[in-house]
Amino acid sequence: MSTLSNGVDGGVFAAVDIGASSGRVILGRVSRNGVALETVHRFPNGVVELDGGLRWDFDALYAEVFTGLRAAATVAAVQGETIASIGIDTWAVDYGLVDADGRLVAQPYSYRDDRSRAAVAPVHARLDPARLYQTTGLQFLQFNTIYQLATEQDLDGLQALLIPDLIAFLLTGKRRTEATNASTTGLFDAVAGEWATEFFTALGLRKDLFPPLIQPGDTYGVLLPDVAAAAGLPAGTPVVAVGSHDTASAVAAVPATEDAFAYISSGTWSLVGLELKHPVLTQASREANFTNERGVDGTIRYLRNVGGLWLLSECQRTWAGEGFHPELPALLEAAAALPAGGPQINADDPYFIAPDNMPERIRAAVRRTGDVLPDHPVAITRCIMDSLASGYARTITAAERLAGRAVEVVHVVGGGSQNTLLCQLTANATGRPVVAGPVEATALGNVLVQARAAGAAAGGLPELRRIITAGTTLRRFEPLDLIVH
């Protein structure tokens, strides 16, 4: 074990980090020099057509997680290390239904399935949208958990476990709901930090439909004996709740040295907003469709979902199906050479949520604006980048106004922080410096919450962020004044 500069021991932690398109199991080693990450297992993830809908192949997903934990145990053992704990983060809102015997009754639906659209009106007939927002502070999205649950036919004897909690349950046998993910359900009181039980009653849902809440840093439980033995991990290895909503872990790892910052967690989706101490529950905030989700240490992630790099990855998938395989770096370089002022789309339009022929859908959206977008990957790529940067700028400006908080710098974390074109366009659009990195923000946030729970790190978010800054190379983009002719 190493010793940190603050006098506490470092450690080795396993982070299970799963997004909508891929997942990883990562070893995080905490030392005085920061956090060193080692990916020991990568695996694909994605929705499948199953039983009449778009679902997650959860059985396959869990098998990959288990394979990753075995790999982590092997790698750690070779180094003479013992894994101190395991933390799990995934995307939000989706859940699996488990019966009294702990069996998953069906593969979980994906938020990309359209089934919840029809449930919006019936839910709003029972719960006024203004009242929903005043309590939950949650951005309206048709796939929020509250609308998904309204489509279920029979929940008697079943319990809903959000995806990271479902994985933790299979590992430990303990049913819990971690708060940062609970705050995305539409059934969570943003001020009280508890379940909004009156909403369960209004919708005819049992108040114990979800397990009890726990906070980042709390422990779900320890590995079941047979799980520990099969994974090659010590009996008694704890599974620690982190910011189980991946954005909560990512925001915890924003390397901010000031309060006046905005963040963009840029990946499949872009989550754009501010870190606050209290939710903003005004009518103006609701009309602007901002959300108030829980962060680590009781913070509020005041943000909007903006379209993300899903748009580009779906375009690449379509182009590959047509036999065209452009290399991403070359594609972005060519897009950067195009002049500013080209056509744009509303990148967070629900029109782009479902998988389909994305290049043609983007061109169709441009046509509806009265503009024309060439049917060429370079032009389409530049349109996506410009549209995302403009969406980021609009969202940050609105967040400043609604929260009464000025922004001096914009931090971009996640995969999008590697995209030089997107970062520069964001600096240009916002008129503020952009600090890019770390790429692995979600895993870093996951590991550091575990490390603090184990006593291998100390302090609040500012102290955790200083550990990240010590071990991360950041890039800074200054805004350029571009004149569009």
From TrEMBL:
For this protein, the Enzyme Commission number is 2.7.1.5
Stretches assigned to the Carbohydrate kinase FGGY C-terminal domain:
262-454
Query: Can you say what this protein is called?
Result: Rhamnulokinase
| Residue ranges of every copy of the Carbohydrate kinase FGGY N-terminal domain listed in the record | 14-251
Instruction: Name the keywords, alphabetized.
Output: ATP-binding, Carbohydrate metabolism, Kinase, Nucleotide-binding, Rhamnose metabolism, Transferase, Xylose metabolism
Q: Is the Ion transport keyword given for this protein?
A: no
Molecular function GO terms recorded: rhamnulokinase activity
User: InterPro entries, per this entry?
Assistant: ATPase_NBD, Carb_kinase_FGGY, FGGY_C, FGGY_Carb_Kinase, FGGY_N, Rhamnulokinase
- Family membership, please give it: Belongs to the FGGY kinase family.
Q: Does the keyword Nucleotide-binding apply?
A: yes
Give the source's domain of life in one word. Bacteria
